[in-house]
Amino acid sequence: MIGTIAAKELKTLFASPLAWVVLTSVQVTGAMVFLRQYDRFVEVQTQRLQDSPGVTEFIATPLYTAMAVLLLLAVPLLAMRAIAEERRNQTMVLLMSAPVTVTEIVLGKFLGLGAFLVLIVALTSAMPLSLAGSTNLDYGHLASLCGGLLLLDFDFAAVSLYLSSLTVHPMGAAFAAFASLVVMLLVGEAAGEGLRAKGWHVPAAFVQVFSPLKNFEPFVKGVVDTYTIACGVLLAFFFIVLTVRRLDSRRLRG
Q1: Domain span at residue 28?
Q2: In the predicted model, is pLDDT for residue 138 greater than 80?
Q3: pLDDT tens-digit profile of 62-115?
Q4: Contacts 24+ apart (CB under 8 A), 194-197
Q5: Helix 2-14 / helix 17-47 crossing angle, nearest 10 deg
Q6: C-alpha to C-alpha distances, 59 to 38, 105, 149, nearest whole angstrom
Q7: What letter does residue 135 receive in the DSSP assignment?
Q8: Contact, 209 vs 229, CB < 8 A?
Q9: What is the pTM of this model?
Q10: Helices assigned H by DSSP within the chain
Q11: Counted domains in the chain
């Protein structure tokens, strides 16, 4: 049933004009960043500057970093209707009365949204890969960037899905999700640095779980850090559990 719900969610996204607008806007902006960095790289190579960075570091790293910021805006818009719209149209009642568990509903919606985000990352990765025939790419670094962006997307999706379960107003859910992600970015990083300065490493490590962009930084450098992967997985798991409990409590209240 999870696969069926995920397929339905993905189909709903592809049928939504907003999703196509978001997809197009993100890819066009990403393409502009890619072409700008490519022009700068060609200029640097023409000048034959010593110690100039490689093509992956010069072109792919700024591209994926820009995509991370763009998706901070895009994912709340893609996820805002996942539950809020269903509740507003009273279709969530029908879905929850079907022979499926709340966990299956939430996981299905999360995976459907995740599949759409995988498409965005795949299209993004196609840009630097288009240079493979004319230059040497660092595929390890590229894989690190791709994996880090996917993990970041799933974290954004889990947070946005939870905020969508709190209201029947999709735009309100999108705004709340975006605001929450920004707060997690600013407060989480500042709190973590402050706790480390005091020598409180365990609380600082806990706080880092709630700072998804901070966890993305090692991937930007080409470092696959198991700790940051664990932080990203825990963050997504935490908000998925919160979403399940939220919907389950509403079903019990009728």
Answers
A1: 2-253
A2: yes
A3: 999 999 999 999 999 998 888 888 777 777 777 777 777 888 889 999 999 999
A4: none
A5: 80
A6: 6, 39, 16
A7: S
A8: no
A9: 0.87
A10: 2-14, 17-47, 55, 61-79, 84-88, 91-97, 102-129, 139-164, 170-197, 201-208, 212-220, 226-253
A11: 1
